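Review session, final week

We close the course with one last complete record, chosen because it touches almost every idea we covered. It is Periplasmic chaperone PpiD, a protein from Hafnia psychrotolerans with 626 residues. Go through it on your own first, then we will talk.
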Amino acid sequence: MMDNLRAASNNVVLKIILALIILSFILTGVGDYLIGGSGDYAAKVNGQEIGRSQLEEAVQSQRSRLQQQLGDQFSALAGSEGYMQQLRQESLNNLIDVTLLDQYSKKLGITVSDQQIKDAILATPQFQTDGRFDNAKYLQSIQGMGYSADNFAKLMKQQLVSQQLAQAFGTSDFILPTETKAMSELLLQERDVRTATLDTAALAAKQQVSDSEAQAFYDQHKNSFVSPEQVKVSYIEMDAASMQGKSNVTDADVTAYYDQHKSEFGQPERRRYRVIVLKTQADADAVAAELKKGADFAELAKTKSIDKLSGKQGGLMDWVEPETTLPEFKSANLTTKGQVSGVIKSDNSFFILRLEDIQPEQIKPIAQVHDSIVDKLKLEKAVDAYYALQQKVSEAATNDNESLASAEDVAGVKATHTDWFTQQQIPAALNFKPVVQAIFEGGLIGQDGSPGSNSDIITVDGDRAFVLRVDAHKAEGFKPFADVKEQVMTLVKREKAEDQARMEGEKLLTALKAGKGDEALKAAGLSFGDVQKIQRTQQPSAFEQNVYALPHPQKDQPVYGLSQDDKGNSVLVELTAVNPGQLPDTETARFEQQLQQSSSNVTFDALLTNLRQEAKIKLGSAAQNQ
């Protein structure tokens, strides 16, 4: 049967079918496959009906997906009757393929349990938050796709069945060692070539171009000489940071702030404790009894405490402030130096405290914090002045909408004027997204490119703002021939040179194939260079493709061809040897796995093709109606 399936394959990987196995939105309507329909159906697959409602749901799902991907572009496509009919046909084909796979899976006895469905849903990344299943996100996601929890579970079941089917056929193929060897030798093949290059640039320098030829080239390639939209802009920039140096702060300001915010400059009370940590209540009671008899607290901490880190220090701990003091320490309510607590129970242990020292609350003197207060007040005044200036400049720019003159007076600076620039070459001082959008999309350009209105305040980076106007505008259009004549002349010369190089190359190729290549190459001032090793790359160039298209040379009989390099030069190629590739032993297993996957895809494609050929598929009236 596997041979038959291979023969049935058309060697086209049906990506749409694989996608429908993986993506739930293409599986629309699978849950209703077993429900009988009326005569108004979309298709019958081996007697199983696909109803009109199933097809309409599938089409709508496909429409929604495309609309999300394409946005406004989809509106133009949706207006095409032919395109929408094609979309409808693709949706129906997907439903037919799913039905065929469903039928075949049942024939093989492939089933999925409710627990497998649940596990698959819980493991879906789309339904997770921070790596854990999020029921709210799950419900929101499936409702957004138009499914109830029950219907989505049915779709998930069909997906799992289809995956098992694909895996069943994927593991049924195997690759012979001889196949691996032959394929690796082909893919890693290396070819020895020598080349002789006809320099197009040198030929271009000798070309002559008439004005009429240049004009004709320009007329045929106008789209290559488009001048992008350009603007000239004037703007006023306001920067909070630059205003900070202009703020004046007096000693009285500093004193007033210090008096009102002393809590910002204080150090809260700090305490230092010694601790003995015990494992059991009995151990803690015994240590407490020894302390009452006058035993040294530090010595007991060293010998009895199960907290070895503090025990080495005689139980001494770091200074703590009220915010960092443990609740158990606070509950001990120790108030004087040397005071010892009773036994205190913690979560997993017992401990005894002694208050070692107390540092009362302190306030830093004003001299120590003077400079920091000055900086803070300067910043606050600068920010206040910055926002006040924004307001004044905005009002001035709005009231005098014909220029930035009034805004300049209020801001106390002259506006900056730019030269012409495009949306692809924004001046660095204006290169902020909100500013660029305001210039090119904000309606600041008047009719026929005339100056328009002043902008509103445009804030960027939080502490910088602009007000601007477009002083002049050039719409996108074709560059005049006179402006691009030199460029056109260069292009025509290049085109002529490439044609000449190709013609000369073809003549030399004919001579080489006829055994007269040495004389022809010498006459042209050319010779073949040193041998190059050429190997296929993942994205082969035209040169590589041409080299690998040449037939294998016979012994001492090179094969010749003509190609082009990435500089546009014509290149004569002499192929002298084809060397089979060598696959490292360490890569053999992975290479075989890749071949296995490729073979499995072909087999699965062949299965689906075979199922379609053997199935009785009848289209109903709903297949065409829209």
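Two points worth writing down before the exam:
Confidence is low (pLDDT under 50) at residues 1-38.
The CA atoms of residues 213 and 359 lie 95 Å apart.
Good luck, everyone.
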